[in-house]
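Aim 2 progress. For AI-2E family transporter, the working sequence is reproduced below.
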Amino acid sequence: MTSCTNTPLGDGRRVLVTIAAAFIVFAGLQAARDIIVPIILASFLAIASYPITVSLRKYLHFPHWLAVCFTVLVDFGFLIGLGFLINFLAKDLSIEVQTTYQPLFETKYNDLMLFLSDHGLDTFVQEKLGSAQDILSAGVIMSITTAIMGKALGFIAITTLVLILMTFFLGEAPRFRSNVDKITASRGCPNIRKFADALQGIQRYLVIKTLISLTTGILAWGLCKYMDVGFALLWGIVAFALNFIPTFGSIVAAIPPILLALLIGGISDAVIVAFGYIVINFMLGNGIEPLLLGKQFGIATSVVLLSVILWGWIWGPIGMLLAVPISVLVKLALENSKDLKWIAMMIDNPPTTIPLPKIPPYTADPGNGPDKGPHKS
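Predicted structure tokens for this construct:
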């Protein structure tokens, strides 16, 4: 008797079961986001920061524990400083909006209504948007500011847990690599080397993406400063943070300064700011970044965009920031599955041969452990 798994009906059932299981897994990941997100964030911060630890051991001959502590202190200072700076700028922005930008907005809005009234559209727009006071009221401003400050304070609150986890991950990194070498040598798991290589690729991606995002933030700050757009430092920080989100992040980061330029200087200033953001993102996002990264992960661009939406739905902003590295690990898992390998092949985009910058990989101290002195290359 023929098994149902060899018939079209059996294959259809297997596909339906796979889809149902995927939805269950995604729902579980979303439900456990408060527990999983700090672990995921700590893991990727450890991967991105490990070159600092390696460099301190290799060039300054720090013992491993001291190099780990110094790396964590650097990350702690950066994250806490960024959180407090955003919180401080959000308070100033709230005051400035109420005292300066709200009267300007009301004037621009009334001019727009006069223009629309000549074409018989003012009533329709007012029904949809309301009055200028309704759109930019003190209550709306405070709610937006409170939300921004709440996110910043919430980010600071989980930073302690993230850094504690990161300390342990960095401390165990050399031992992890040593264990990978032992497993590979004993043929205990033939695909573990591929997983370790994927982690090195993610490490390169995070380091290079951080440098590109930092450059984007500096250029955005310079553009806003030159065009006299208020709170240029804040828009530079926003451009830096959102540049980690493929495509969508750059668009969202450009909207506030463009609107502010339109409010203060008019259409010409808004066009110049918009053009400046386009040039910055095209030069870095479509020029330098692909040159450095190539297509090393082998994932189609459309799949990257869909993964941003999916992981943003599951884990919020952190999921959007880490959508690409997470998708790489998921693709690797699919490649090593007999039943789901076809999915990995479908979303595959052959990598280019552009060489990547030399970044210190995970290192091990075979036979000595992580605390037996500096690494010997």
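The chain has three domains: 28-190, 197-241+257-289, 295-352. This observation will guide construct design in the next reporting period.
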